[in-house]
Fold this sequence. Notes:
The structure holds two protein chains of two kinds. Chain A is an alpha+beta fold. Chain A has helices at 2-29, 42-45, 47-60, 62-67, 75-96, and strands at residues 97-100, 110-113, 134-137, 144-148, 152-153. Among the domains of chain A are: 41-98 and 146-162; 102-142, no CATH class. In chain A, helix 3 crosses helix 5.
Amino acid sequence: MGRLGLACRLIFNGELARRAAAGLEVRAAKPAAPTTPKAIPPERLHASALLLLSALQREGRLVDFLQQEVAGFSDEEIGAAARVVHGGCLKVLRQYFELDPASPQTEGEAVTLPAGFDAQRFRLTGNVAGQPPFRGTLKHHGWVARQIRMPVLNDALDPRVLAAAEVELA
Amino acid sequence: MSRYAIGIDLGTTHCELSHVDLTAETPRDWRESLLGIPQLTALGTIEEKFLLPSFLYLPNAGEFPEGAIALPWDNQAVEFVGEFARSQGVKTPARLVASAKSWLSHAGVDRNSPLLPWQAPPEVRRLSPVEASARYLRHLAAAWNYRFARGQAGEGHAIAGQEVILTVPASFDAAARELTLAAATHAGLENVTLLEEPQAALYAWIEAMGEGFRHHVRKGDIILVVDVGGGTTDFSLIAVTEQGGEVQFTRLAVGDHILLGGDNMDLTLAHHLNSSLAAAGKKLDAWQFTSLTYGCRQAKELLFNDPKLQRAPISIPSRGSGLIGGTLKTELTREALASILTDGFIPQVAVSERPQTARRTGLAQMALPYAQDAGITRHLAAFLSRQARALETTEGAPGLAHGQAFVHPTAILFNGGVFKAGALKERVLEVLNQWLAADGGAPIKELAGADLDLAVARGAAYYGWVRHGHGVRIRGGTARSYYVGVESAMPAVPGFEPPVKALCVAPFGMEEGTQADVPPQEFGLVVGEPTRFRFFASSLRRNDKVGELFEDAVGTEELEELAPIETVLPANHRDPGKLVPVNLQAAVTEIGTLEVRCLEKGGEGSWKLELNVRMKGEEARPQ
């Protein structure tokens, strides 16, 4: 049985190899044929987002926490779980990112935004009209990822699996 | 010539690697000298960390998706070390190799035989403590080569061509040092020197201080290094002397091997809280217990860092997906922390107190000989008092005024993450100062400023730099004298062991690269048959000379029995069964290991004795 299986695979692989070789020849013979870019499956396109989600689940149980219906639990119970989420997710956040406030000022302080202010880092709210400089109050100092240290992704893993099911053997 | 000196801290719970460029003209920036070690931190996730947890996971076939444990330098990896090994091993302990270093120094087992994982079922492939240690070193070596020795730019930078300084506890005996070296050889490290960890910590402090270190120590100082790692506690005394106007350091003495470390502290707190949870009918599984242990570590740091806090909450997540409602809650109070940690591990004791068990561990013991007395200050009291008696009889030894009950250290250097908790450091200082005041000594000063977690690897690399003629070197030679057992000739009496005399083959303080005199005693070796000698060491008998016999060696507190040493005289050119007269000679290699040889009397022959031999009649068999 084992030998048969191996033989089958060899035949299969041989066939594959022939087809691959034939494909190469065809491509060489007909150059400049416009190729449509192969569609990247969403889990590969967004692999790092899934990786982050899986890290937040692994360390901080974030997916477990959000997927639960909180209505039936006491604040005490939610609080205990929130400590797990806070501790673990903070660890991931600190590991992968270094965060700075977008504005160095303290919230509540008066802020002046000159002409040509950084519209990426500052968002105007309230009575937005007229010309700069704009004078207002800092309501939220914002956050900016100064450094990003996401780990290397391994293609061998299916990024859709945020947490594998665990089966304990006795 | 090597381009780099590489310091490796091969720890019980963590490894680190630091380097210094030997061709650089100026001292390195020591803060930037650590290697970020790529390792699996989760399945399929590679991250760089300065610490490589010393854990090895041996997966079952098909346990993980194909390629999911690949490393940047090895996509065929079948096992893994580091952070993911540790976290996965919590859920699957039978496949986790841990504490390999403690096994390496355990003379009760054959350290070259496949023992680990200790509790593994029969179908799990096992490794020897030496091979397991080699795996950690191999990972470090590969990480180095991956970073520095790739492509053309990396030519000549491969770790095999560099000077590697590997640290060992000062309390490691000759056999444990040789086995550490064997692990390095297995890992492909060729040019290795051993350095004692407390010395490495002092080197790191010297480097961190720069030239300023001269303002902090002066001639006549006795520095006590208290190194509490993850799994071991190690003491050393280092004297500051002067020669030709230049400061010199001499390592005076080292303590016993104490299997007691920072991990025991967190574990003790977790057990304490677990028993109150159990009393309330809440049972934790092994994974939850580990969560509790991590929680205790965090709560401990929280309480130590903020003296106003009275309690720190701990949440233990549920194993299943129902986090809310399934999470257990407990808390660590300041009261419990003080009574369990501070009073339990660093109790207020008099210097006359001793650890509650015999310091010598029987060779017959199979499982790891963990320290039975958790009181670090009691171990310290025993160390300082014993060394006072030893130094008293040594002429010209620095550091002891007459009539002192114990050696009075004048300065203290802490090492190990445990001491990030200021309260624990304060307690050690408080106890030492009480002892000193009661014995007429001056208060001790702390040598602060080194990194408690990463000093050993850094100091080891710095020592590589010092060996090339920079900075100040610590001298000392062997911290023990070594003996072979000689049975007294007497008629056999049933049930009564003949008394054993100890023949000194290596004196205290032998320097690297030297050999001892040949003792006059003669032994007969039978050609082709293994010959064994009982083997002893003493960190207290500083004055024994080579060839001296010491009566009633067995059972005295001054002598510690090590694993026996053995040789087989090869039968080539000789008749098997023939008796060949030999003398024994000891040498300390440049690397820092001890060698005992048999020299053929009146001939050319010389045979090395193996240091790591199992006790007769004992089978190293995991339970």
